[in-house]
Amino acid sequence: MDVFLPIAQVFINPVEILLISAIVGVLSGLFGVGGGFLMTPFLIFMGVPPAYAVANEANNILATSVSGSTTHWLKNTLDYKMGLMIVIGGTIGTVLGIFTFTYFKDIGKIDTVISLAYMYILAIIGTLMLVESLGEIDKAKKNIVEKKKLHVHYWIHGLPFRMRFPKSKLYESIFTPIVIGLIVGFIAAIMGIGGAFILVPAMIYIIKMPTKLVPGTSLFVTIFVSVIVTFLHSINYGSIDLMLVLMLVVGSIVGVQVGQKLGEQIDSSGLKALLAILLLIVGIVIAYDTFFAEEVKNGVTSVSSPDLNFFSKFIKEFSEDMPFFYGLFSILFAIILGIGAAFIRRSISKFREKYFKKTVKQSK
Amino acid sequence: MHLSNLKILNIIANKKSTFIKTGIFSAIAACWGVILVGTFITFK
User: Fold this and answer.
1) How many other C-beta atoms can be found within 10 angstroms of the C-beta atom of residue A142?
2) DSSP state of A8
């Protein structure tokens, strides 16, 4: 049973989308990585045009980062001040990224640029992860324990315009978070990803933030970056498809919960090598698709005016007639879904705690 | 089993991790080869 996406103008199988976004969600929850750099290529493989895959995945990332960030806000593991500094850079980077996107779209090369960017990013991350995990396995076998210095200072820490960040207990130049935000925003706008794979290592190794504040702050930044990306893609190209976003959000939110629970029970360091291999395989498939399978790419069914149902017609007309409000609506839609998911998760865990306590008391 | 056969099995077991590492690094090299050659051909 295929469903027609009114904005992306392609038929997709909703069960496949739900299943794949759930699997990517499980991987995200298990390894603490954003799912964007896996989900966007999968959407492209399923026939969604790259420009649409990028925009809709950005909207999906908004929902999942709102959900994750709400949880961290409830736990008070967020550094707002540092987050806002990164957001300033992120905003500039996103606007620059959208200009670049527009340039390549105008010369008709955007699909190639997106594919090339994914191919290289996946190959680089895959290689680094594989080498690191092999090293870890080797060290674990030989029982080598490395002694690390408590605090190392680089030239970055001597930059001017320093500011105090009380939550992270840091006194650092504002240039560092702004430049990091700029890079993340630029990449997010072109590739439709949250940028956590750059942001998290940068926060730990360059800014030197306490590890417990990193995931929450990274998600907080991702919210702003993905809001800007979603909005700009929506008003410039009208490429947000709420039907696709709904499927992606449901699948990934459920998947992330399962992944986080699995992560609490199993040691995922050994599985890191498998994720790295998966990334490399996806990189090779994109390379094959881009360089050697032109005929297959051109054979994707694209339908211009089929008989749309009420919901699809509403989405299409809303997007075409009021792009500004449609952009705002898609942002609100993702935020509501994300907050809803966070509160449902909290109520379920409270209910389980209560139920568990009751059963323990009864057994005593 | 002959002593010579056992020796071979031991050598294989000792070299296992080296074989796996070589395999993985060749796979990475192949992956990068495909990507770089593809990019070169496309832009040429």
Assistant:
1) 7
2) T
Question: Which value does ipTM take for this structure?
Answer: 0.71
Interface test mutation site (partner B, options A284, A285, A288, A289, max chain B beta carbons within 10 A):
A284
Q: Which residues pair with A3 in a beta bridge?
A: A12
Rg (chain B; Cα; Å): 19
Cβ neighbours around A313 below 10 Å, total: 12
Question: Are residues A287 and B34, on separate chains, in Cβ contact within 8 Å?
Answer: yes
What mean pLDDT comes out for the span A243-272?
A: 79
User: How many whole angstroms separate alpha carbon A130 and alpha carbon A97?
Assistant: 29
**pLDDT tens per residue across span A259-311:** 777 777 776 666 777 778 888 888 888 888 777 765 544 444 545 555 677 77
Residue A292 and residue B28: Cβ atoms within 8 Å? no
| Residue B22 reports pLDDT greater than 50 | yes
Pick from A116, A120, A130: CB nearest B28: A130
Nearest Cα neighbor of A90 from A195, A165, A172 is A195
* Shortest Cα–Cα distance, B1 to chain A (Å): 30
Of A116, A277, A288, the CB nearest to B39: A116
Give the pLDDT band (50/70/90) at residue A10: confident
Selected residue of B16, B26, B34, B36 to mutate for chain A interface (largest A Cβ count, 10 A): B34
Residue pairs between chains A and B whose CB atoms are closer than 8 Å: 38
Give pLDDT, residue A61: 86
Against a cut of 0.95, is the pTM above it? no
For residue A127, list chain B residues with Cβ-Cβ distance below 8 A: 28, 31-32
Q: Which residue has the higher pLDDT, A103 or A356?
A: A103
Considering only the beta carbons, identify the residue of A126, A127, A291 that sits closest to B38: A291
The pLDDT assigned to A19 comes to 92
| Amino acid letter, residue A176 | T
Tell me the C-alpha distance between A120 and A78, whole Å: 32
A146 vs A30, more confident: A30
Q: Which residues of B touch A292 (CB under 8 A)?
A: 38
**CB contact at 8 A, A128 and A136:** no
Number of Cβ within 10 Å of residue B25's Cβ equals 14
- For residue A203, is pLDDT > 50? yes
Chain A residues within an 8 Å CB radius of B39: 116, 291
Check residue A100 and give left, alpha or beta (phi > 0: left; psi -120 to 50: alpha).
alpha
